[in-house]
Amino acid sequence: MHISGIVQIVFSPTGGTQKVADMITDAWNLPIRRIDISQLVLSDMRTAADELCVIAVPSFGGRVPEIACRRIRQLSAQGSPAVLVAVYGNRAFEDTLVELEDTVKEAGFVPIAGIAAVAEHSIMHQYGAGRPDDTDRQVLRGFAGGIWDYLLQMNKILPVSLLPGSRPYKEPMRGGIQLFVTGQCTGCGLCAVKCPTGAIQQDAVRITDRDLCISCMRCVSICPHQARKINPVVVYALAHRLKDGCAGRKEDELFM
Q1: What phi and psi values does residue 122 have, to the nearest 5 degrees?
Q2: Angle at the Cα of 39 from the Cα atoms of 111 and 21, rounded to 5 degrees
Q3: What is the pLDDT of residue 47?
Q4: Are 104 and 72 in contact (CB under 8 A)?
């Protein structure tokens, strides 16, 4: 099969998912077109049948963020082959890959491979700290090479089968983590511009709409003055609750 180019379709609020996607696509040494589905307004919403797509999302409580699903469904693929990537914070990805598979099929993609990769947890940074690392890079690049060889040998795209996960999916997480704004806030509005869901308004940056907030931590990670915070007591309690599930190093899982 001839591949004319590479397309990254990524939802990466704090950068970990983007790092994983880059490690995969860098192995192919082709120009990359990027569709950032964390933006409120999407562009370049079509992909062609001869474009190889990497569709990467974080796992939020074992599910694809609902806003990411909605935006993937807005895309128009003409049978484009797709590598599906679920990135999680060293706990579990659960139903993320099967939900992503169902979602991309609705948009016209043909999923040919799946990857569950670890990145540093966006809230409890001690879990998956420093991931993806050099070991992940070697694993992901090696698998990407295998995908490329597979495509070159195939005259017809065959969809991946038996991705791990359950249908119906597990119940999504309910309720976000409440943030607070310190006196260091200058009102620059960067958090409002970059919020994936529009939960922060530029004329009222100290207020977060809790109905829209998905606790993605982008506003915390990008604030130039570190003015947006989570209550450390809440973080400690969450870390203690997830300690057993996040213990030890989880390795990347590959499916084709």
Answers
A1: -75, -15
A2: 40
A3: 94
A4: yes
Residue 149 burial class via C-beta count within 10 angstroms: exposed 0-12, middle 13-18, buried 19 and up: exposed
pLDDT in tens, 244-255: 999 899 999 999
Q: Are 251 and 115 in contact (CB under 8 A)?
A: no
Q: In this structure, what are the phi and psi dihedrals at residue 151, rounded to the nearest 5 degrees?
A: -65, -40
Q: Which of 138, 149, 53 is nearest to 104 (CA)?
A: 53
74 pLDDT more than 90:
yes
What's the whole-model pTM score?
0.95
DSSP string, 182-221: -TT-----HHHHH-TT--EETTEEEEE-TTT-----HHHH
Cα 147-36-168 angle, rounded to 5 deg = 70
Per-residue pLDDT of 148-158, as tens digits, reads 998 888 777 77
How many CA atoms are closer than 13 Å to the CA of 47, on its beta-carbon side? 32
C-alpha span between 37 and 57 (Å, rounded)? 9
With CA atoms as reference, report the closest residue to 25 among 111, 104, 143.
143
Helix (H, G, I), strand (E, B) or coil at 114: strand
Sign of CA dihedral 89, 104, 160, 155: negative
